[in-house]
Write a structure and sequence with these properties.
Helix 1 packs antiparallel against helix 2, helix 1 runs parallel beside helix 3 and helix 3 packs across helix 4. The protein has a two-stranded parallel ribbon with strand order 1-2. The chain has 5 helices and 2 strands; from the N terminus they run H-H-H-H-E-H-E. 25% of the residues are buried. It is mainly alpha-helical. The longest helix has 18 residues.
């Protein structure tokens, strides 16, 4: 699960940095997902699957416009999945992500 988030977020960061086009990123994502379905790669679920799914959703939704990193996304996903209302961080991009997801950032 963690490797999938890292890879998918890396694709979104390429969009953010204007290193790839949206169609190139989508094509790469589809190729990876196809390889996953065909057994080229195997997913080993980790405890907290809902957190990783939320992190993937946040990455797809925000990374190409904000430039958030995978572990920052995971922290926000954990807060959201546990029903947090406030989020504490010194990281500017992580704070922006948390705010866009309606968390009160301090």
């Amino acid at each position: 699960d963690l490797a999938e988030i890292e890879l998918m977020n890396a694709f979104q960061l390429r969009l953010f940095r204007k290193e790839s086009t949206a169609s190139q990123v989508r094509s790469a994502q589809l190729l990876f997902l196809s390889d996953l379905e065909q057994g080229v790669f195997q997913r080993t679920p980790m405890a907290g699957g809902a957190i990783f799914e939320r992190a993937l959703q946040l990455s797809r939704k925000w990374t190409s416009s904000i430039g958030t990193r995978s572990l920052d996304i995971l922290h926000v996903a954990i807060a959201l999945e546990h029903g947090a209302e406030a989020f504490y961080t010194f990281d500017r991009l992580q704070a922006k992500l948390a705010e866009r997801e309606a968390l009160k950032v301090s």
